[in-house]
């Protein structure tokens, strides 16, 4: 009952500030191997895994990023192995079925049932905390922005 009541105040349109990326302007300019991080997060997990497996950084950057990249590859491999290779990292957890959310082992399970609002322009961190995300297409990500009740 509370969820339905709160749902009236949410809007599934892309946030005009972050353009649906759920990132602050500064974070939208961060690139890895000439790709913006929101572009990488919009790829299906299968392609994202290949991106990180093939990632070669120049000089000392490779050594610095090695542990992080290995962890990313391990987590993406797990998600691919449990059959979630068609999802993408920018997909909101609230768009996943309970079975898919459980298969992912995601801590986002509880976020699935909680409303969120886009804070990309006010959050001091670089990532918008509007929703915990797991995975789909780059333009399907939306921020749930506060709005007046819909009729």
Termini separation comes to: 17 Å
The whole-angstrom Rg is: 16 Å
Assign a percent range to the helix content. Answer: 25-40%
Low-confidence stretches: 107-117, 129-151
Hey, roughly how much beta strand do the residues contain?
5-15%
Indicate the multimeric state. single chain
Number of domains: 1
Mean pLDDT: 74
Structural class of the secondary elements? Answer: mainly alpha
For the biggest β-sheet, the strand order reads 1-4
Number of E-state strands: 4
Q: Strand count, sense and closure of the main sheet?
A: 2 strands, antiparallel
Per the CATH scheme, the topology name is ABC transporter ATPase like fold
What is the number of helices? 6
General description of the model:
- With 151 residues, the protein is mainly alpha-helical.
- It has a single domain (2-146), classed as ABC transporter ATPase like fold (Up-down Bundle), CATH 1.20.1580.
- It has helices spanning 2-7, 25-28, 37-41, 45-53, 60-81, 98-104; strands spanning 10-11, 31-32, 35-36, 145-146.
- Strands 1-4 form a two-stranded antiparallel sheet. Strands 2-3 form a two-stranded antiparallel ribbon.
- Helix 4 (45-53) packs antiparallel against helix 5.
- The model is unreliable at 107-117 and 129-151 (pLDDT under 50).
What's this model, at a glance?
By secondary structure, this protein is mainly alpha-helical.
Features:
two-stranded antiparallel sheet; disordered C terminus; two-stranded antiparallel ribbon; mainly alpha; 151 residues; ABC transporter ATPase like fold
Detail the topology: elements first, then pairings:
Layout: H1 2-7, E1 10-11, H2 25-28, E2 31-32, E3 35-36, H3 37-41, H4 45-53, H5 60-81, H6 98-104, E4 145-146
């Amino acid at each position: 009952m509370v969820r339905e009541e709160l749902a009236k105040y949410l809007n599934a349109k892309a946030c005009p500030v972050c353009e649906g990326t759920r990132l602050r302007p500064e974070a939208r300019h961060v690139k890895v191997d000439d790709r913006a991080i929101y572009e990488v997060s919009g790829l299906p997990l299968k392609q994202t895994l290949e991106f990180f497996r093939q990632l070669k950084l120049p000089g000392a950057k490779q050594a610095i990023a090695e542990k992080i990249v290995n962890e990313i590859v391990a987590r993406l491999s797990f998600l691919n192995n449990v059959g979630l290779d068609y999802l993408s990292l920018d997909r909101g957890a609230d768009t996943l079925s309970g079975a898919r959310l459980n298969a992912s082992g995601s801590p986002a399970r509880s976020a699935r049932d909680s409303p969120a609002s886009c804070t990309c322009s006010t959050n001091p961190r670089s990532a918008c905390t509007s929703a915990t995300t797991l995975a789909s297409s780059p333009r399907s990500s939306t921020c749930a922005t506060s709005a007046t009740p819909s009729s």
